[in-house]
Each structure stands twice: as structure tokens, then as C-alpha cells.
């Protein structure tokens, strides 16, 4: 049995994770921690792995506290910067036996979309991303879109491809969206949506669209459970669930 703590327990994701852990024969729920609790509660309860679905402003401190407490971490919370990831990597040197997985998206379709987009990006002149989410989401662009853009940018740089063509010289309202490593990202917030992303790739006379849709948060649970089961076997920092998959 793996003993699991859930941070952000009463949130939209945390409540699904609790249900998924309770339904898994090889996992047991050690602690459900919310805003008024802390990582110390997870440690006192003997958790081996903690799952964090909290808020961008809290997640880094949670991960450092989990490392100090000797608890493996599976993190879905978004908002991570390169500097914050480096700080976690540095901290893990003190506890080389621990694993930390930070995954911007646990839905298998989204994980595959990111891989497909990076593979396709070198064959198309233009690429842009549209992410679409429920209006209660606090961060934009989404962690998934940011990770997708970074993967695309890395693939294009490795292939020696420059930025997508764009004649825009006048955009006082920022209509061309955020630009992440040269890739334009557009964020839609709409009641009724859960989590969706389209990667649009264009060449003269053709377009490839890669689209992933999470219609329900149950879509994230197989990936979260994979992370919980695998994290202790992957010491150090892993960014992206694809690091645990045979892709
Ligand atoms: N990687 C993935 O596959 C996915 C990632 N996400 C990401 O997960 C995060 C959470 O999303 P979602 O569940 O929709 O958000 P919610 O706002 O529904 O849930 C966040 C929860 O965290 C609690 N919380 C805030 N601070 C702390 C803290 N310091 N310790 C413990 N709990 C805390 C909040 O409590 P209170 O309300 O009292 O402040 C709330 O219950 C977001 O960053 C989102 O982008 C979402 C879906 C999938
Ligand atoms: O807040 C959400 O809902 C989601 N957040 C993650 C992100 O920012 O990419 C993952 C998924 O898109 C749902």
C-alpha cells in the first residue's frame, strides 16, 4: 500500500484525487490537507507521497516542505517558472532518494498532444496555440499551453527554424496574445468549458490542428495515479508525465 496525502483537498481537482485514491486498491488516503492545514499534517499522518493541486502562489513552498519532510511529491498545480524548478532541483540534492513529479497536465490526451505538437512543429511554417478553460481558472496562459509552447520552441530551435511569419506592427490591445519563446498563445475563458487546447500548424495550402479536450476532471485521474505509483521509482525532478511513460 502507498500512503497518500492530498494538498488542496477540497478544490475541484483535490476532491477528485481523494475519490480516485479511495477507489484504488493499492493506495490509502493518509491526509486531506486544505488551506488551513499544512504539509506537517501530511508528515504526521505518515504519508509517503503527497499530491498537490493547490494554487500557483502556494505550490513551491509546499514542495520544499515535502522535501524537508521526506515525502515524494506529485504536483499538478501550474505557475512554475524555470527559476522555481531549479530551486527544487537544488533542494533535491539534499534528499537524492526523493522523487518530485511536476506535470502541467495529467490527461493522457494532453500529454500526447504536447508530444505530437513538438514532432510536427519543425514541418510547418506557422504555429500558434489556443487554450480554452472554465472561467474560475486563476492563471493564464495555462500551464499546459506554456509547456506546449516551450516544447514547440525547442523542437524548432533544434531544427534551425525561425519564428512563425507575422506582419503585425500595430496591436495596441494585445490581440496577438502572449508570446512564449516566440510562440503565440491565446487564452479563452468560457462558462461550460473544463480544459481544452488546440495547436494550429500552417503551411501554404494546408493546416494541421491538434486538439485535446478534457470534458470532465476524471480525465486527469489515470495520470495522477500513475504519478503516485511511479514517483518513488523516479528520484530527482521530472517535469511532465511523459517522463514516466514509454513514448
Ligand atoms: N496538472 C493537471 O493535470 C491539472 C492542473 N490543474 C491545476 O491545479 C491547480 C488547482 O486547480 P483547481 O483544483 O481547479 O483549483 P481550486 O481553486 O478548485 O482548488 C485549489 C484548492 O487549494 C486550496 N489551497 C490554497 N492554498 C493552499 C495551501 N497552501 N495548502 C493547501 N491547500 C491550499 C484551496 O483552498 P481555498 O479555496 O480555501 O483557498 C482550494 O481548495 C491549478 O493550478 C490548476 O491549473 C488543474 C487541473 C488539471
Ligand atoms: O486550471 C485548470 O483547470 C487546468 N489547469 C492546467 C493548466 O493550466 O494547464 C491543466 C488543465 O489545462 C486544467
UniProtKB/TrEMBL annotation:
Keywords tagged on the record: Amino-acid biosynthesis, Cytoplasm, Diaminopimelate biosynthesis, Lysine biosynthesis, NAD, NADP, Oxidoreductase
GO cellular component, one term: cytoplasm
Substrates-to-products reaction catalysed: (S)-2,3,4,5-tetrahydrodipicolinate + NADP(+) + H2O = (2S,4S)-4-hydroxy-2,3,4,5-tetrahydrodipicolinate + NADPH + H(+); (S)-2,3,4,5-tetrahydrodipicolinate + NAD(+) + H2O = (2S,4S)-4-hydroxy-2,3,4,5-tetrahydrodipicolinate + NADH + H(+)
Origin organism lineage: Bacteria, Bacillati, Actinomycetota, Actinomycetes, Micrococcales
Protein's recorded name: 4-hydroxy-tetrahydrodipicolinate reductase
Protein role: Catalyzes the conversion of 4-hydroxy-tetrahydrodipicolinate (HTPA) to tetrahydrodipicolinate.
GO annotation terms (biological process): diaminopimelate biosynthetic process; lysine biosynthetic process via diaminopimelate
Subcellular compartments: Cytoplasm
EC number, as in UniProt: 1.17.1.8
